[in-house]
Amino acid sequence: MQLEELKQKMKVFPKYPRINPPYKVHWNWDISFKCNYKCSYCEVVRRDEEFNTQIADTEQWKEVWDRIFDNYWCTHVRFSGGEPTIYPNFLKFLGMLLEKHTVDITTNLSFDLNDFLDKVKPGGLSISASFHPEFDDFNKFFEKLKYLHFNGFPSTMSYVGYPPHLDKIPEYKKKLEDLQMYFKIIPFIGNYKDKKYPESYDSREKRLLEGFATDSKDQHLNDMNSRWLEWRVEKEENKEKKESKIKLGKLCRMGQMYAKIHPDLTVTRCCAGYHGVDSGKMGSILDKNFKLHDEPLDCSVNYDCPCFKGMFVGDEEEKWEPLWEALDHPIYKLEYMREYAKILKGKK
Fold first, then answer.
1. For 286, phi and psi rounded to 5 degrees?
2. How far is CA 219 from CA 104, 186, 279, in A?
3. What is the CATH topology of the domain spanning 3-207+233-347?
4. Which residues contact 155 (CB under 8 A, 6 or more apart)?
5. Whole-number Å distance between alpha carbons of 210 and 263
6. What is the residue-wise DSSP string for 147-216?
7. What does the pLDDT look like over 127-177, one tens digit per residue?
8. Three-state DSSP class for residue 250
9. What is the Cα–Cα distance from 24 to 225, expressed in whole angstroms?
10. Integer Cα distance of 128 and 79 in angstroms
11. What b/e sequence results for 19-41 when a residue is b if at least 16 CB atoms lie within 10 Å of its CB, and e otherwise?
């Protein structure tokens, strides 16, 4: 494809194009740790007190994300928390964001479906729905999830492997996979009956979780679930593997191709630490001069890397590159950036 033809397709060339995989900047945004559920097994909502959550209006966010588009072109934003949809005017903000970026929302689906469909149009948005049996009915949740999935919003379901809830996994997993939908297992992190998890899963529970993580027809899902499980539920006796998680000094593209946005709008290089502790504070997303790193940098974290998708350079790309796939934007397609990267590399 010629440069002029490519420019017509891309609309604009970014100031700081990403010419390395995954070619698209990914953001994980804990927009707040507030939630309308109070699940007994959830440690996340307790973090709300640690942060001074900052609220910005939609027009202010439009300036921010238009600037990010000008710098890096179409990026991918994964909202988590807390429950993102209770953020003030979230659906209006979401509709604006989708004009130039792709989005995934980790949500409990408690939002009003009609209001959602009125304010958010299909295209570039996927739903990572988390089912919480202490606050929701599965049948109602499942019907809502199906409607979204088959009406333009590709959806998956995640479920926390809380010890008392493990027996429901086969039923829920089958319902999803009968419709070729992804069912993701989240190993429980926290305390249950004075035991710390995931370390305290017994041998039966580990075998159960390992089986569920590898018995899907979709190999990509098996790979994702099994890597997540292996990363979180690690056998204590495997000291060699534990040591391999310490990546201090290893070159990594986190901060170049990925960044974490915290509720106070601080941006850090990755998920290790908070407010820049260990992981590298990069500034505030509201700062007009905010900029990602232009090159990979050495990891500065001196404890186990918390992410099984760490973007380490040299000999691990084949492990993590496939895990950073995201829904394509209907206008600003990833193939255009890949093509542009080839042209730019050829000029060097």
1. -80, -15
2. 21, 18, 32
3. TIM Barrel (3.20.20)
4. 126, 127, 128, 129, 145, 148, 149, 181
5. 34
6. HHHTTT--EEEEEEE-GGGGGGHHHHHHHHHTTT--EEEEE--EEETTEEETTT--HHHHHHHHHHTT--
7. 999 999 999 999 999 999 999 999 999 999 999 999 999 999 999 999 999
8. coil
9. 23
10. 10
11. ebbbbbbbbbbbbbbbbeeebeb
Q: Across all residues in the chain, what is the average pLDDT?
A: 90
What separation in angstroms does the CA of 150 have from each of 8, 58, 79, 126, 279?
A: 32, 29, 21, 11, 39
| Amino acid letter, residue 280 | G
Residue 114 corresponds to which tokens in the numbers above? 């009609």
Rounded to an integer, what distance in angstroms lies between the CA atom of residue 341 and that of residue 17? Answer: 8
With contact defined as beta carbons under 8 Å apart, do 254 and 310 qualify? yes
Please tell me the predicted confidence (pLDDT) of residue 236: 45
* Backbone torsions φ then ψ of 247, nearest 5 degrees: -110, 15
Distance of CA 294 to the CA centre of its chain: 22
Q: Does the bond joining 170 to the residue before it have cis omega, within 30 degrees of 0?
A: no
- Is 43 within 8 Å of 35 (Cβ atoms)? no
User: Cβ contacts of residue 84 below 8 Å, gap of 6+?
Assistant: 31, 32, 90, 105, 106, 107
Strands 297-298 and 190-192: unpaired
Among 292, 264, 288, which residue's Cα sits nearest to residue 280? 292
Quick check: 169 and 181 in contact, CB under 8 A? no
Domain boundaries, the chain: 3-207+233-347
In sequence order, the 6+-apart residues with CB closer than 8 A to the CB of 310 are 247, 252, 254, 270, 299, 316, 320
- 169: tokens are 């996994």
Is the confidence at residue 269, as pLDDT, over 50?
Answer: yes
Q: What is the pLDDT of residues 271-312, one digit of tens each?
A: 887 766 777 899 999 999 999 999 999 998 888 888 888 999
The sign of the CA dihedral 46, 49, 52, 54 is positive
- What is the CA angle 70-291-56, rounded to 5? 75
* pLDDT tens per residue, range 312-336: 998 789 889 988 988 999 999 999 9
Q: What is the DSSP letter of 281?
A: E
- Decide if 260 contacts 267 (C-beta within 8 A): yes
